[in-house]
Amino acid sequence: MLGQPDPTNFCFRKPSHSIRLRQTPSHPPPAFSRSLFGRRDARVRRLAGIAVPRMAANFWASSHCKQLLDNPEDADLVPAADRERGITPEEFRLVKIHMSFHIWRLAQAVKVRQRVIATAVTYFRRVYTRKSMSEYDPRLVAPTCLYLASKVEESTVQARLLVFYIKKMCGTGSDDKYRFEIKDILEMEMKLLEALDYYLVVFHPYRPLLQLLQDAGITDLTQFAWGLVNDTYKMDLILIYAPYMIALACIYIASVLKDKDTTSWFEELRVDMNIVKNISMEILDFYDTYKIDPQRGLPEDKISPVLNKLPAKS
Amino acid sequence: MASGGGDDDTGGKLLVNRYLKGEQLGEGTYGIVNKAIDTKTGNTVAIKRIRIGEKKEGVNFTALREIKLLKELKDPNIIELIDCFPYKENLHLVFEFMDTDLEAVIKDKRIVLSPADTKSYAQMMLKGLAFCHKKWVLHRDMKPNNLLIGADGQLKLADFGLARMFGSPGRNFTHQVFARWYRAPELLFGSKQYGSAVDIWAAGCIFAELLTRRPFAQGSSDIDQLGKIFAALGTPKSSQWPDMAYLPDYVEYQYVAAPPLRTLFPLASDDALDLLSKMLTYDPKARITAQQALEHRYFSSLPAPTIPSQLPRPRRKGDSGNNKIPDLNLQDGPVVLSPPRKLRRVTAHEGMEGNMHRADKVDEHPSGTRHTDDMSSQSSRIPMSVDVGAVFGTRPAPRPTLNSADKSHLKRKLDMDPEFGFGE
């Protein structure tokens, strides 16, 4: 987690969404592949041990790639059922941020890998591009996403352990709306699978991030860039952009903030810098807008009124 | 919850307005399998009903793996997961229906496999495998009865319950994968960082099995398995396999020179033997890849592989007797021909191991008796070769699935690396 970077170092304009071009399988990044796996092939291979990095070969044909939203605004569309209850796009977004924190804190209690958290948050955000919060209570969906992600990523957390920590974390206050039983989680797991259309494999920026930092020879930025990637899960970027583009945006921000000249390296990659800069701007906008306390998340008085608009749990 | 829907095994019912449920085909690893008609397409399908774990652990872990990977893997030589749906609190998986499997073909003594037939099976197997590997998926349970054969003769890789994605640098995997007879030497020596070469070894064993109609090396323990492999292919020298001595469970074997491969496979063509020797190369780094194997001259030389629809079919034992559907290991197999001694040994002994073998966290699989089923279906067919040790009662020779491992030991080995440790 990291504090708020200073956006004043940036001199580029905020571009409009219209120039954002998502690369599709029909338009793979040949230059990128060549640079990463061609010239420095031996090094990358060595880095990867027995296997070459999976991302480049695999992402373009994955269900994750096919499910990327064509229109970034789609992630902010409030489902009809929630609109009827008076939830605004801003509130919708707040709940998603808040619940990302909730998943995060829960994950730290049960001690799972970073990847599991990232997958859980991705599931959570995907669900609400299709389902309403009125029907799928985010307070139950969040821990269930973590539960499902832990299984999918092969580091299972028992449901009873999750229930235990939810009670421990939320049990003291008046917050019994966060409390659920094992059977609630298991029931929601089935509904979740259906809501996700059973597509469970998710790609993340972490691995490309490490490879790209290595390739650029700026591994001293790893910690900082890693923190930036973590923070991208407070947003819907993972539903919109290819993971390696998110990784590049984080490297871009990190290198500008830490005064590393990566211009020629980026040029050599020959990726669409408009997209990289777009993502970077969105990230910085996010820091600027929400000024979230990285430890505590959003203040309760901002969230409770929104959650109170949702139907009480049955 | 698990026994909740006991009434819907009767058949004749329309599920989710689409599937007309037919006879029960058997009980698989994690649920009951029914034949059904997909009214949307008119195709016959197999519907697997996933039991929800009794230990309150939700959707079965193995089933989840299968869903996760098969949703990404769409290929003519990989079993198709057509649909998933919840019904009566149970998750149902819909697979394409498959008539039989390669094991039934190999074991059916009436079938004569021509060199072209063998080539066809080997090619389809390698095509499926090449696709998996391209998608960075390791199958990890290649064996003849996981290679299903459809009505059109197409061979498809099935049972992805042990499969997983690879490519994470330095990530440790368990070496307790594959049925022992198909386990690569690096796994038998305890390697935890392995790649697609393990599937190729197993494919090589299956290829050899197609050529001789009996399992290539039938070890009764990991040590014995290695001994059998070395007896057939010679004890590997360090020049042949430099990393061997550094593997966790490496033990030195007495040196045996390799007999000419020709003596083991008197009827195989030179091309077939050349490909086989490349698939059964000791050093996993030097072992041929699935894609390279497909480009081997064996597949371009004469005779051309038989068209799948013209491949010989094993005789059916009744309507459903010999039918195979994805991952179905018949528990109540129709006819058990083998002596009861064999069955008893199998159920008492291998069930537990099968359980271990499926588990990434052992206690998640309270009732996984997968390989018990597996074994009984195995022994329902007459064995092709006689294991002398078993006949004289000195040594059992069941189709083994996993060597027994101490639970905590196994647990410790699984998935413990801090790949994404920092930043947490």
TrEMBL record, chain A:
Domain of life: Eukaryota
InterPro entries the record matches: Cyclin-like_dom, Cyclin-like_sf, Cyclin/Ssn8, Cyclin_N
Residue span of region Disordered: 13-33
A UniProt-annotated Pfam family: Cyclin_N
Molecular function in Gene Ontology: cyclin-dependent protein serine/threonine kinase regulator activity
Chain segments annotated as transmembrane: 238-257
Transmembrane helix in keyword set: yes
Domain Cyclin-like: 101-194, 207-285
Keywords: Cell cycle, Cell division, Cyclin, Membrane, Transmembrane, Transmembrane helix
GO biological process: cell division; regulation of transcription by RNA polymerase II
Annotated family: Belongs to the cyclin family. Cyclin C subfamily.
The protein's name in its UniProt record: Cyclin-like domain-containing protein
From TrEMBL, chain B:
GO cellular component, one term: transcription factor TFIIK complex
InterPro entries with a match to the protein in the record: CDK, CDK7, Kinase-like_dom_sf, Prot_kinase_dom, Protein_kinase_ATP_BS, Ser/Thr_kinase_AS
Biased composition regions of type Basic and acidic residues, renumbered to the chain: 347-374
Coiled coil: none
Name of the top EC class for this enzyme: transferase
Keywords: ATP-binding, Kinase, Nucleotide-binding, Phosphoprotein, Serine/threonine-protein kinase, Transferase
Gene Ontology BP annotations: positive regulation of transcription by RNA polymerase II; regulation of cell cycle
GO MF annotation list: ATP binding; cyclin-dependent protein serine/threonine kinase activity; RNA polymerase II CTD heptapeptide repeat kinase activity
Pfam family, one: Pkinase
Catalytic activity, as annotated: [DNA-directed RNA polymerase] + ATP = phospho-[DNA-directed RNA polymerase] + ADP + H(+); L-seryl-[protein] + ATP = O-phospho-L-seryl-[protein] + ADP + H(+); L-threonyl-[protein] + ATP = O-phospho-L-threonyl-[protein] + ADP + H(+)
Superkingdom of the organism of origin: Eukaryota
Segments for region (Disordered): 301-424
EC number: 2.7.11.22, 2.7.11.23
Active-site residue list: D141 (proton acceptor)
Chain ranges of the Protein kinase domain: 19-299
Positions bound to ATP: L25, G26, E27, G28, T29, Y30, G31, I32, V33, K48
Recorded family membership: Belongs to the protein kinase superfamily. CMGC Ser/Thr protein kinase family. CDC2/CDKX subfamily.
Protein name, per record: Cyclin-dependent kinase D-1
Gene that encodes it: LOC101781985
